[in-house]
Amino acid sequence: MKIWLDGELVDESAAKISVFDHGLLYGDGVFEGIRFYNRRVFRLEEHIKRLFESARAIVLELPWTPEEVCKFVVETVAANGLDDGYIRLVVTRGSGGLGLNPYLCKRASMFIIAGTISLYPQEHYENGLSVITCATRRPAPAALMPQVKSLNYLNNIMAKVEAIQADALEAVMLNEQGYVAECTGDNIFILRDGVLYTPLVSDGALDGVTRRVILELADQLGVPTVEKSLTRYDLYICDEFFLTGTAAEVIPVVAYDRRVIGTGKPGEITKRFIAAFKELAGSTGTPID
Ligand code: PMP
């Protein structure tokens, strides 16, 4: 596997980061997860725009333009000869002292991995997922801005531990006020009486690229959408429930806190979203060559 690291495509064994890198020492950095289908990178510019916005919000300066970063991503995918897969792009603050001060880090480091990912077993895409509410809360926006896709994922990892310990594969995380925020790596959608609802970004959800795609597809499918604060009650009584994310794609939820959702099978409207998403992802995007 060839890894793009600070301007060069190197062998996996040569792709090394300093132990003094603040991404490792403090989780000081930002990242993106991007998919490619049929040798086309899905929503590449949108992901890179979000990356630059995340970086800007944490005062992390990238020594490349968004156009250059898009080119590096395409080069990395091309160098690895995959038709379909998942890209992990990480920007760290770079090497600095052992103290927190980010201004002592001279230059940001960036690496790009083009590989594959499988978030949930395939059977759950067909039969649906069981999820639970976890005790671990999303940090308040004043503590960690939810729009920033930072390297600080310990909160989500603790939520994932709770899910696995409860024999579930995914956890719904609430915010400090008790409103539904998101899952550990996915955005949440529910359908109730034909209306599609998703939590507000300001309630602690990432402004997911797949979330935006679903809201666009809803317009095309004639499904009305509402972004609002949701409670567990809204999720308990919904007709259909699904999760979205670049790695997860679109996956139905059929049980929540051991309550059956809808008919206990993936919902009909959810299936239409899955099909529309597949169609769009498989036919659009930045070509690899
Ligand atoms: N929430 C979190 C916490 C995530 O890590 C992700 C995955 N990037 C998402 C939501 C979904 O976002 P996207 O559709 O942009 O991948």
UniProtKB/TrEMBL annotation:
The gene is ilvE. Pathway: Amino-acid biosynthesis; L-leucine biosynthesis; L-leucine from 3-methyl-2-oxobutanoate: step 4/4; Amino-acid biosynthesis; L-valine biosynthesis; L-valine from pyruvate: step 4/4; Amino-acid biosynthesis; L-isoleucine biosynthesis; L-isoleucine from 2-oxobutanoate: step 4/4. Its cofactor is pyridoxal 5'-phosphate. It comes from Luteolibacter flavescens. It catalyses: L-isoleucine + 2-oxoglutarate = (S)-3-methyl-2-oxopentanoate + L-glutamate; L-valine + 2-oxoglutarate = 3-methyl-2-oxobutanoate + L-glutamate; L-leucine + 2-oxoglutarate = 4-methyl-2-oxopentanoate + L-glutamate. This is Branched-chain-amino-acid aminotransferase. It is an enzyme of class 2 (transferase). The keyword Transferase applies. InterPro entries: Aminotrans_IV, Aminotrans_IV_CS, Aminotransferase-like, B_amino_transI, BCAT-like_C, BCAT-like_N, Class-IV_PLP-Dep_Aminotrnsfr. Keywords: Amino-acid biosynthesis, Aminotransferase, Branched-chain amino acid biosynthesis, Pyridoxal phosphate, Transferase. Belongs to the class-IV pyridoxal-phosphate-dependent aminotransferase family. Pfam families: Aminotran_4. Its EC number is 2.6.1.42. SUPFAM superfamilies: D-aminoacid aminotransferase-like PLP-dependent enzymes. Acts on leucine, isoleucine and valine. Gene3D superfamilies: 3.30.470.10, D-amino Acid Aminotransferase, subunit A, domain 2. CDD domains: D-AAT_like.
